[in-house]
Amino acid sequence: LRSPLDPGGDEQSISLAGVFSMTGREDLALTVDRLALDHLLEAFDPPDTIAGQLSAETHLGGTAVSPVLTGRLSIDSGLVNQYSYRALHLGFDYDEERLTWSSSLLPHQGDSLAITGFAPVNLSLTGEGDRLYRDRPFEVKIATAGLPLSIIQASGQEFKNVDGFITADLAIAGTVDAPAVSGGCGLRDGTFALPRYGMEYKDILTNLSITDATVTLDTLQVRRDKGVLTGTGTLQFEKDMLTGVIKTTQFDFLANEFYLVRSKDYQVQMSGDGRLTGNSLEPKFAGTITVLRSSLYLPALMEEAAAAQAAADQSMPLLVKATLAADTLTDSTAALKIRQGEIDTTAVDWYKHLRGQFKVTIPRNTWLRSPDMNLEIGEGDLDLVKNGPDFELFGPLKIMRGQYNLYGKRFTILQGSLLFQGGAEYNPEVAMQAQYIFRTADREKKTLKLDVSGKAFTPVLQFTIDDNVIEEKDAIAYVMYGRSMEELTSGQQSDAGAAQADLAKGAAANMLSNQLSQTLGSKLGLDVVDISSQGSLAAATMTVGKYLTNNLFMSYQRSVGQTQEQEATPEIVTLEYELNKHLFLQLLQGDEKSSGVDFIFKFQH
């Protein structure tokens, strides 16, 4: 039986010839010639991209009770997702309950990967007896002198800038019930990037050695920019490596100015140390971490982040949602839950038993950003603790500076704090005060203050104007139109049309400046970009700021244009240097009234 598989009729083919009886002697041959895998698998809609030309020759002899198998298989010009290779060869033989094989993967460059071995199995066609003999010897050998690291592109992840070589010389022998693993493996000159997660590492060097039931991490080194992560340790199993029962663990890691992740949505640079000890039933972790610099774009950490970001300009600000009825908050607060809940760890005993505590210090230069918000937090020590099924956070953080945009108007943060009190959901207590200075329709200067309290996901808001508490509806009316709700509904004056036109110009100017601030901050890599229009297209104040080092912050303020009510505002340059945790030096250079030197002493009661 011969079946051509291509339109030409003779390039791709599958042929089957011989006798298959199940009662007498078997004599059956299967031949596959240059079969296109992508066309073959297309009907099954596989999750991975697989391509190449498959050729094979197999023969079945012997009897159904005691078959004899031989086979040779090859795939030329192969492709698995983003990984392409020159060829894959496999040869196997089966006779007298012993299966032997020899396989090799041939990359386009570098050394091949060879996997050889034998196993005691029963491939009887009648299905009688055990399939795998656990008390008979087996052997598997894995060897390569330099397989290109590009093989990781077969995983389907969008790796970029992949380079480096994998080395391996491993042997697994003994019996299934008592296996023994020996040899080692490693990676040299490794480099790869995973832009989706902000990961980009270079100069990766690892070396693992295995002797009996002990795995030793002799070397681990990873670099990014000027930072480095190193590690060493040992892992000892109860009987053998393949059982998975850990007897003792001792791993030590050290990070120095290392960027764990760095992308447009989030970045974390840290220094510190970590330890992993214990066994399978009592694994423990400990360590200290100082977050030198970090920035988190909150929608990227929330569920349905892509949809939230696409609708950011049209969505209602989070703080405004707190003024709505409780039943309207269900969908929005659900979207704020961290992705930790998506990870199913119920079947992982090691994770379930894991216990420990990390001390996380955040001095300054940690930013929380969203389309409506830009906050710097710091001056806090957090404890990342696991005493049960979930990781929990404990400790306070200060809100150092920032702004919140509400309907095109900018609220400046005066002071604030976050208090984490544990729990599976990272939902801290919030205490924050912000203000918005504006002029009413009568050009009277007013200060609208916002006090936020309660939980971050369900905040409680209180608004005051010139220290008098007002209702939330009036606050929103002041923010949007510069007058109270009562004034909006009591009838319009004869010149309302002209007044509304002026207000519309002010709202447009503020919304334009907000969008410009976000764009400039992203393009120029600045930590602070604040363009305040003062409610008019004719006058604006621009402030830009950036951490030059982790301890030195510089800002520049410049006013453009001038209204009749304003005095000329000088250019102001501010340098803020952190001498230690409690003492700061601030230098201001402007005119005679705004220049000076300040020593700022901070303490937490």
Description:
The protein has 605 residues and is mainly beta. Among the domains are: 197 residues, no CATH class; 92 residues. Helices cover 11% and strands 54% of the residues. The chain contains 8 helices and 33 strands. The strands form 2 sheets. It has a 6-stranded mixed beta barrel with strand order 17-18-21-22-20-19. A 6-stranded antiparallel beta sheet has the order 28-29-30-31-32-33. Strand 16 and strand 17 form a beta hairpin. The longest helix has 29 residues. It is elongated, with a radius of gyration of 33 Å.
Layout of strands and helices, then pairs:
Elements: E1 2-4, E2 13-19, E3 27-36, H1 37-41, E4 50-62, E5 67-80, E6 83-94, E7 99-106, E8 113-119, E9 137-148, E10 160-175, E11 179-194, E12 199-211, E13 214-224, E14 227-237, E15 246-262, E16 266-278, E17 284-297, H2 305-310, H3 318-321, H4 330-334, H5 349-353, E18 355-362, E19 366-370, E20 373-378, E21 380-386, E22 392-406, E23 409-421, E24 429-439, E25 445-454, E26 459-465, E27 468-470, H6 472-481, H7 485-489, H8 496-524, E28 528-532, E29 540-547, E30 552-560, E31 572-578, E32 583-589, E33 596-601
Parallel strand pairs: 17-18, 17-19
Antiparallel strand pairs: 1-2, 2-3, 3-4, 4-5, 5-6, 6-7, 7-8, 8-9, 9-10, 10-11, 11-12, 12-13, 13-14, 14-15, 15-16, 16-17, 18-21, 19-20, 20-22, 21-22, 22-23, 23-24, 24-25, 25-26, 26-27, 28-29, 29-30, 30-31, 31-32, 32-33
